[in-house]
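Subject: Interface between my chains keeps coming out wrong

I've been trying for a while to get a sensible model of this assembly. When I model each chain on its own everything looks fine, but I need the whole thing in one frame so I can look at the contacts. Pasting all components below, labels as-is. Any help appreciated, I'm running out of ideas.
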Amino acid sequence: MSRRILIVGTGLIGASVGLALRAAGFTGEIVGTGPTERTLTIAQSMGAIDSWIAKENAESAATDADLILLAGPVLSILDWMQRLAPVLGEHQLVTDVGSTKVQIVALAAKLYNQPGRARFLPGHPMAGKEAGGAALAEAELFQNAMWLFTPLNHSPHPLESEWRQWIVRFGAHTLDLDATRHDEICAWVSHLPQMLSTALAALLEETFGSDSKGREEVAAIGGRALRETTRLGSSPYSMWRDIALSNSEPIAATLHALEQKLAHLRENLRTPELKEEFRLANEFRARRDS
Amino acid sequence: MSRRILIVGTGLIGASVGLALRAAGFTGEIVGTGPTERTLTIAQSMGAIDSWIAKENAESAATDADLILLAGPVLSILDWMQRLAPVLGEHQLVTDVGSTKVQIVALAAKLYNQPGRARFLPGHPMAGKEAGGAALAEAELFQNAMWLFTPLNHSPHPLESEWRQWIVRFGAHTLDLDATRHDEICAWVSHLPQMLSTALAALLEETFGSDSKGREEVAAIGGRALRETTRLGSSPYSMWRDIALSNSEPIAATLHALEQKLAHLRENLRTPELKEEFRLANEFRARRDS
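Reply #2:
Try treating it as a single job with all components included. I did that and got this:
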C-alpha cells in the first residue's frame, strides 16, 4: 500500500485527485509540487495536498514517494518524465493524466519499465471543466467518468493494481486500450468536436463581431442549437495547445474528413443524397440514445 | 377581433398554436385542416382545434375564417398560399410559420397585400422539438421563444396587430427583420449548426458503424462534447428538406466558410495562429455568456 503519493501539478485534475483520494479513504501522505506556488497553496488550503515542495526540490520529494502522479498538459508531463526517471527506482510507480498517449508511451518505453527503473502506467481521465485551476477542483470530478489506460505491458505490478483500485473508488470506470487507438478515438470524440466548436464560434465572431446590429440579431435568434454547438468555443487555448501539438496527425485527419463531408452536404442541399446523410446521422444518434 | 381561426397543418407547431390560443383566452372557433386526417384527429382530441375539415374542402373553411395560419414545411406553405389566395378577401389575414422567408415573401408580394386580396404577414416561431407531430404539441411551446416577422410593408392592419398580441400572450418575444436578412441569420445560427451536427454524426456512423469494437469505444469514451455536437443529428430529414431547398444559397455560403475555417485550423495545429482562433471563439462565447 502506498504511504506517500506525490502529485506533480495541482491544477483542476491534480487537486481533484488529491481530494478524491481523501474522500475515498487514503490515509497516507499527499505531497504536491508543480510550477506555480499559488496553485500549490490553493490546493493545500483545500485539503487536496498535505504539504508542497518547490519545483526546484521535486526530485527529493519524488524519491520519497511510492506513487507519483504527473498531472498537467502533455508537454509538461513529457518534461517531468525525463527529469524524474533517473532518480526513481523499481519499487515506484509513475502514472499520468495526459490527454494524448502516443508520445508519452514512447517516452515511457525508453525511460521506464526496465531493470532498475520505475514503472510507468499511462492514464487519461475523461473529466474536466470548461476552465481549469485548483480552485475548481472537487472530489466528485471523476464520478461516472471514464479513466482510460494505455499500459505498456500486461504484467501487472502491485502498485498499478492499487492505483486502479483507487480510481474505481473515485467512482470512475476504466478501459484499457492501445495508445495509437486511444489517440485516434480521442481525436474523433473529443478533439474534433472541440476544433469544430472553436471554428464555428471563431467564424461567427469574425462575421458579426464588428457589426453591432448583427450581433444583436444573432443573440436574439440563436437558440439551443447555436449554444450547444459553440459551447466548447469557450475552452482556453492553454488547455488545447499541447493536445494539438501532440496529436496533430489524427486531428488533421478527422478535420479533413469533416471538411469533405461538409462539402458533400453543401453540394447536395438540393439532391436526395442529403436524405442519406440525415439517415446516417439519425442512425448514429439512435444507437447512442438507446 | 377574430371569431374564427383556421389552422392549416396541425403538426407540432400548428397544434401548439391552437393550444396556446386557448390557454391565452381565445374564445372564438378554431378549425383545422391539413393533409393527414390522423393528425387532425389527434389535434382535435387534444383540444388544439374544435373541428376539422378535409383538405379537399379547405377553401370553404378558409373563406369563413378571419385569420388563417399556414403551419407546415415551407414548400407546403407555398402551395397553400397559391391555393387560397383566389378565394380570400381584403378583410382576412393569412400568416405562416415557415422556417425560411425569402420565397414566401416573394410569393406573398405577388398574390396578397393588394386591392381585393387578403393580407399576408410572414412569421417564423423559433420553437420546436427534435421530433414533430401533433402528439408532442403543448400550449407552452412558445414561452420565451423568439417569433420572427418579415413584414412586406409597414402599414399595420388591425388583424396583424391582433395576431401579434396573441403571440405576446403565448409568452414569446417578437422581432421584425428583412426577409433576406432573416434567411441569412437563420443560416448562421440554425441551419449551419444543423448541417454540421448531421455531418459529424454521419461521418462517425460511416467510420465506426460497421466496426463493433470501435462503436463500443466511441460510446465508452465520448462524453458531453460529442453528445452536444451531434445532438441535432437526430433531426429528421423530413423537417429539413424544405429548409435546404428554400435557403440553399445562404446555407451553402455558411458551409463553405466553415469548411475554409476548419482547413485553416487543420493547417495551423502546430502554429501560434491556432491561439488566435481560440481567442476569437472565446470572445464570441464571452459575449453570449455575459
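Reply #3:
Confirming on my end. Chain A has a mean pLDDT of 95.
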